[in-house]
Design goal:
Layout lengths: L13 H7 L31 E7 L10 H11 L4 E5 L1 E4 L16 H13 L3 E4 L2 E4 L13 H21 L4 E6 L8 H14 L4 E6 L15 E4 L12 H22 L3 E6 L22 H15 L5 E6 L23 H10 L3
Parallel strand pairs: 1-2, 1-10, 2-4, 3-5, 4-6, 6-7, 7-8, 8-9, 9-10
Helix pairs in contact: 4-5, 6-7, 7-8
Length: about 350
């Protein structure tokens, strides 16, 4: 998910995954659910909740991950029943045609990233590092199409292997090789070489976070351990708080994903999914600015529908929600309207499905 300051967003093996806790068939993150983990009323069984339980904590500034609030945020995240947390160090390029990316004052420092990984482990959370590339002059990262592709991939290789080594050195349990780079992701040969270079540094499970309208066009899933999708499918044509209706809207998508997983012989992880607490969020989950009207009930219904629709699916590896609270003085969307579920009905939905019982 691109940050608002840039733009509103637009549209290997099972054994390795079991070790990583990303399988929906066992392990402490993911008790075996059987055919369904819901009772007749649609409530989660007290003993069985399937899939990786994740939350994203993004950074917008150099020192975010070393702020005093970091430990508090992680405790709050863990209290929802979340067992994984995703971090998003970001480099920037000015234009979609540029041939390289660089750090800026909005890039989390390496020391701060190491610090928050350590805090997360201390809090009993597993970690995924999901580096992002964004644009300083506006636009969507999906539109990045460098004029000099060889130069861009060389620069990207330096960027991503830097974080792969940092992840390896700090015991990170899963790593994403890229996020929503649709303008380059059809280049299977160059991406294959990039992934091979990453594996020289990082031996854990790898994914790529494809946008929901991108994942079927990716030629390199065979090189990765799990399919990653940023799951911002529109579910309604008008605002609704009807969780049953939203769950029904997921049905054709569930069927589509089940078939895709079977063809690729890989499980599917929602590397992102989320809803602002604004009226109409289910019509455009990828948008930070659907409306200025409160939509907490719609956000909660959307959380309920996703968790109910995918619970117990043996090919579904879980979800990393976008996102927890913004850091003080950095959010450009008021908390009451933002993606965070914290302090809202959606947090209660998470605790119902994921919380300790």
């Amino acid at each position: 998910m691109n940050v608002m300051r840039r733009t509103a967003a637009t549209l290997a093996t099972v054994a390795v995954l079991l070790v990583a806790g990303c399988s929906s068939s066992g392990g402490e993150d993911d008790p075996t659910p059987g055919p369904s983990a819901s009772d007749r009323n649609g409530r989660p069984d007290d003993r069985k909740v399937s899939g990786l339980r994740g939350m994203t904590l993004p950074s917008w500034n150099t020192d975010d991950y070393s702020r005093p609030q970091a430990e508090t945020y992680l405790r709050q995240i863990a209290a929802t029943g979340t067992r994984w947390v995703t971090f998003t160090p970001t480099w920037y390029q000015d234009r979609v045609t540029d041939s390289a990316m660089r750090t800026t004052g909005e890039t989390a420092s390496d020391d701060s990233l190491r610090h928050i990984i350590r805090l997360a482990h201390d809090a009993g959370l597993k970690t995924m590092v999901k580096p992002h590339v964004d644009l300083t002059k506006g636009g969507d990262r999906a539109e990045i199409k460098p004029k000099d592709r060889d130069a861009w991939f060389t620069a990207y290789g330096r960027f991503i292997t830097h974080y792969a080594q940092l992840a390896a050195d700090n015991g990170v349990e899963q790593f994403s090789v890229g996020t929503e780079l649709a303008g380059t992701s059809r280049d299977g040969e160059r991406w294959g070489r990039t992934i091979a270079a990453i594996r020289e540094h990082y031996k854990g499970p790898l994914t790529y976070a494809a946008n929901y309208d991108e994942y079927q066009k990716i030629p390199f899933w065979k090189d990765l351990d799990v399919i990653g999708i940023d799951a911002y499918w529109p579910l309604a044509d008008k605002a609704t708080t009807d969780a049953a209706r939203l769950r029904s809207a997921w049905r054709p998508i569930v069927d589509e994903l089940a078939a895709f997983s079977d063809r690729q012989h890989r499980k599917i992880l929602f590397t992102e999914a989320g809803y602002v607490s604004q009226r109409g969020t289910t019509t455009a989950p990828y948008s930070w600015t659907v409306s200025k009207r409160d939509g907490e009930a719609e956000q909660a219904a959307a959380y309920e529908a996703l968790l109910a629709a995918f619970d117990g699916k043996p090919w579904w590896a879980g979800v990393c929600w976008w996102m927890w609270d913004d850091w003080p003085d950095s959010g450009e969307t008021a908390k009451r309207l933002a993606y965070t579920p914290h302090g809202k009905p959606a947090e209660k939905v998470l605790k119902k499905w994921w919380g300790e019982r």
